[in-house]
Design a protein that fits this description.
By secondary structure, this protein is α/β, with parallel strands linked by helices. The protein folds into 3 domains: 183 residues, FAD/NAD(P)-binding domain (3-Layer(bba) Sandwich); 105 residues, D-Amino Acid Oxidase, Chain A, domain 2 (2-Layer Sandwich); 69 residues, no CATH class. It has 16 helices and 17 strands. Helix 11 crosses helix 12. The longest helix is centred in the last third of the chain and has 25 residues. It is globular.
Length: 429
């Protein structure tokens, strides 16, 4: 580990993009990876993260775009008595690669290119020692580890999950052609993402249920696959059959089911924003990126975009400003990361409200009638500040729809009411 300037803790998307970025620019690094590539491959599915084109551009820049894209748009389906359908095209393809395959492969890329790796989990007490070995330590350990170092910011954090999550890889479904990402909504009940999903043996389908707590889809959270595979599979098929005929018609009943107990997860996330740096007992600073800095509910799929943006922001700052990795360095990178993450977080937390905000309803209804709006809304999953620009206040949404020559009945009603005025002032609650 001689002369390794930067220590990077964590080999998820954030840590790997930072390690690869610095390596590409000739900065010596040591990556502290909890697990080897083979251990990552053999682990339980940790997420089913979509990589929109903003992430795929970074992968191309780092030379790690190993998997062909992919999805050419979002197919948003809203389950009303007369279902709404929005088919929006992306300006560049997205894809979804099994995070285990993705991280194991990128870790091996980093090693093949000469990167230094130390295996094992880093405990908080070890950070002072690490900070003495490196000029700077950047931590990308995700939402569950080392969080106590970085104060939570209540103003931007929620206090409880807004959805319960159940995602997994299934057999017996034919993906739509051409490939669209299915974003299926049942207002008040939850959402189901249907995702063409690249895993170890090729392309399959992931189904991701976002369950409104206390609602009818809680049944999918009630059974663990390990305990009763048939009941679990029947529950999933039951929900799909009841709500989503356009998915049901592509399911081969006799083959349908979760691929294995390793290929799914159930859980919930409380959206949380933390300070992006901390001072250690020896006076040195450590920087947090990715989920450690900001964990969002995955509803709008913003986590990898935030994590890899954080990696590039910190990496570029290390290249541009090597004078000192002091508090000024940390505040500058925090501000720059936050300028992306703030809007991704605000948009996500706006979209997750139950019942949906009036301007969300109007925008979705309008997008079903206007292809330009549909394309922009779907493409902007990769540019979340643009979608937040359209939704951050009732006035903004109403004016956008007026420019497009469209009505905004729910927004207008909300604006006219006291509650609506309060809504328009609200930021991310
Ligand atoms: C079900 C689900 C679906 C999702 N869908 C999407 C989506 O569609 N699009 C999207 O952009 N995002 C999505 N996300 C979010 C996305 O997965 C995360 O935002 C992203 O993985 C964060 O990357 P990260 O590198 O910050 O952390 P992680 O991916 O959590 O990686 C952290 C790494 O650090 C390691 N580690 C932890 N503690 C230590 C320690 N003490 N020492 C050393 N190493 C440690 C872990 O082993 C892991 O390798 C989803 C998340 C979930 C749960």
């Amino acid at each position: 580990m001689a002369n390794s300037r930067i220590g990077v803790v964590g080999s998820g998307p954030g840590g790997l993009h930072l390690g690869l970025f610095l390596q590409k620019h000739g900065v010596t690094t040591t990556l502290y990876s909890e697990r080897t590539a083979d251990q990552i491959r053999a682990s339980k599915l940790p997420n089913t993260a979509i990589h929109w084109w903003n992430v795929r551009k970074r992968e191309a820049e780092l030379g790690v775009d190993h998997w062909e894209g992919g999805q050419i748009g979002n197919n948003i389906w809203v389950g009303l008595p007369d279902p709404l359908v929005i088919k929006g095209h992306f300006s560049a393809k997205s894809n979804i690669v099994d995070n285990r395959l993705y991280c194991a492969t990128l870790l091996e890329d980093y090693i093949k290119r000469g990167g230094d790796v130390v295996y094992g989990a880093i405990q908080a007490e070890a950070l002072v020692g690490l900070s003495e070995k490196h000029e700077l330590v950047v931590i990308s350990s995700g939402k569950g580890s080392l969080t106590e170092l970085f104060p939570r910011i209540p103003e931007f954090s929620l206090t409880a999950p807004k959805r319960r999550l159940c995602t997994g890889i299934y057999r017996g479904i034919t993906n739509p052609q051409p490939e669209y990402l299915g974003v299926n909504m049942v207002p008040g009940t939850g959402e189901l993402y249907e995702m063409p999903f690249i895993t170890f043996d090729g392309k399959h389908t992931a189904l991701f249920f976002f369950v409104v707590p206390g609602g009818p889809w809680e049944t999918v959270m009630a059974t663990r696959y390990e305990d009763n595979p048939k009941k679990f599979n029947d529950t999933v098929l039951g929900i799909v059959s009841a709500h989503f005929p356009h998915i049901r018609e592509r399911i081969r009943t006799s083959e349908f089911g979760l691929r294995s107990a390793l290929d799914y997860l159930q859980g919930a996330i409380t959206p949380t924003v933390r300070r992006a740096y901390a001072k250690l007992a020896n006076g040195k600073h450590v920087v947090a990126i990715g989920d450690l800095h900001c964990t969002n509910d995955p509803l709008m799929g913003q986590g990898v975009g935030c994590a890899t943006n954080g990696a590039f922001v910190v990496g570029q700052a290390i290249l541009d400003d090597g004078l000192a990795f002091d508090e000024r360095f940390c505040t500058l990178v925090e501000e720059k990361m936050w300028s992306w993450t703030r809007d991704a977080t605000a948009w996500n937390n706006h979209m997750i409200q139950v019942p949906p905000a009036p301007n969300t309803v109007d925008l979705i209804i309008a997008a079903a009638k206007n292809q330009t709006l549909a394309d922009a809304f779907c493409d902007n999953f990769a540019a979340p500040s643009k979608n937040w620009n359209a939704l951050a206040s009732l006035e903004r949404s109403r004016n956008l729809l007026r420019v497009l020559g469209m009505d905004s009945p729910f927004t207008d009603a909300a604006l006219a009411s006291t509650a609506g005025a309060a809504d328009s002032k609200r930021s991310v609650q």
